[in-house]
Design goal:
- By secondary structure, the chain is an alpha+beta fold.
- It folds into two domains: about 15-220 and about 400-405, Ribosomal Protein S5, domain 2 (2-Layer Sandwich); about 225-400, 2-Layer Sandwich (Alpha-Beta Plaits).
- Helices cover about 40% and strands about 20% of the residues.
- It contains twelve helices and 13 strands.
- The protein has a six-stranded mixed beta sheet, sandwiched between helices.
- Helix 4 crosses helix 5.
- It is globular.
- The protein binds alpha-D-galactopyranose.
- Alpha-D-galactopyranose binds near residues 61, 192, 194 and 195.
Length: about 400
């Protein structure tokens, strides 16, 4: 996955990051690359799609369980002009790479970032919608390969661009499912719905609790007194499709065994720790650990929602710690870098809760920090983390943001 680099290495400060997304700058960049657009300056549209951070509920989505992500104010934007010729042509502003495809062609997967766009076009057509041609530029201040779902953001931003004004007529959750289909059937990663859901349905100031079986969801406001801080380990998320798909297959294999204990179990969402114990040696140790993570993680999601609603910081700290340990020991998708980042964070005064976030094998941690504590956390991470890992971290305070859409 993820040949999208999208985040120029020199860009470190908040104002650098905001400048990348400036809508007038994007429109100017588009017209500079396609001077025929000058006369159509007023027709330029700018769409955006946020990244996401998951507070808790990891790998539970494809087990019909519960997740608690938030869309964040690091995002991908596309400025475009509609084109009547059925070609989608995009230029990345981070490295000026330009690529295109025809909406009528059966474009095979190419192993590049354009797969997320072409896959979305394919999935939109499969859903009976009509993507349009366009000429556009694409910019991002969302670190790529960081476990913050930049690939889902490309899918959602390109869906909004290719549908034009008709995107407003598609329910955000439906658009999320179309983009998930692009990822599953075209890109070839059997991911769940969490990323596309969070990035389509995001709400300012709130996390979103999704029941991945019924698809019912609700917003869970984040306490005003807590800041959300993402710490990037500086190690690319090494989640290739195969490691992810392997975890998913192990969960399915565990269900097949647990059905002998209770035939009503349809997914790990239905299982309990007692049933895992009752399966005995029929469940080999690896499958037992995978199932244990999913069962305990679903409980942690409900408890985290309750702790956020009660602003119970001690409980939040315990739940994030238990979630991290479960991902490290039972699901086995943490890394020495993620473990080091969490260890440093939890020793910092004002850090309420810290754990790895997203698919695993590198990428980022998510931290809940008392107001004003982000600078203390940054200082501690910059002082302690490079010496332990030899890597250059990034500490990114973020805010829960609205889902994808067109800029006014
Ligand atoms: C990736 C997938 C999601 C989810 C997470 C782990 O981000 O795209 O569907 O499974 O990993 O929680």
């Amino acid at each position: 996955m993820g040949q999208w680099r999208g985040y120029p290495d020199g860009v470190r400060t908040t104002s650098d990051r905001q400048a990348i997304l400036d809508a007038d700058g994007l429109a100017a960049a588009l017209i500079e690359r396609d001077p025929t657009g000058r006369a159509r300056r007023d027709d330029v549209r700018v769409v955006r799609a946020p990244g996401r951070v998951n507070l808790i509920g990891e790998h539970t989505d494809y087990n019909e369980g519960f997740v608690l992500p938030a869309a964040i104010d690091l995002e991908i934007r596309i400025a475009y002009l509609a084109a009547g010729d059925g070609r989608v042509e995009l230029t990345r502003l981070d490295d000026n790479e330009r690529d295109s495809f025809a909406l009528t062609e059966e474009r095979p997967r190419g192993g590049t970032w354009l797969d997320y766009v072409a896959g979305t076009a394919w999935a939109l057509r499969e859903a009976g919608l009509e993507p349009q041609g366009l000429r556009g530029v694409i910019a991002s201040n969302l670190p790529a390969n960081a476990g913050l779902s930049s690939s889902a953001a490309i899918e959602l931003a390109s869906a909004w661009a290719m549908l034009g004004d008709a995107a407003r007529d598609v329910a955000p959750l439906d658009l999320a499912r179309i983009c998930q289909r692009a990822e599953n059937a075209y890109v070839g990663v059997q991911s769940g719905l969490m990323d596309q859901f969070a990035e389509a349905c995001g709400t300012a100031g709130a996390a979103l609790e999704l029941d991945c079986r019924s698809l019912d969801w609700r917003t869970v406001p984040l306490p005003d007194a807590l800041e959300l801080v993402v710490c990037h380990t500086g190690s690319a998320r090494r989640l290739d499709g195969s490691a992810y798909n392997e975890r998913r297959a192990q969960c399915d294999a565990a269900v097949a065994v647990l059905r002998h204990v209770d035939s009503s179990i349809r997914s790990l969402r239905d299982a309990t720790l007692e049933q895992i114990a009752a399966a005995g040696d029929a469940l080999d140790p690896v499958l037992r650990r995978r199932a244990t993570h999913i069962v305990t993680e679903n409980v942690r999601v409900a408890e985290t929602v309750a702790a956020l609603e009660a602003d119970d910081r001690a409980a939040l700290g315990r739940l994030f710690a238990a979630g991290h340990a479960s991902l490290r020991d039972d699901f086995e998708i943490s890394s020495p870098e993620l473990d080091a980042m969490v260890e440093i964070a939890v020793s910092v005064h004002g850090v309420v809760a810290a754990r790895m976030t997203g698919g695993g094998f590198g990428g980022c941690t998510v931290n809940l920090v008392e107001a004003g504590g982000a600078d203390t956390l940054r200082t501690a991470v910059l002082a302690g983390y490079p010496a332990r890992t030899g890597l250059r971290p990034m500490v990114l305070p973020v805010k829960a943001a609205p889902g994808a859409g067109q800029l006014a």
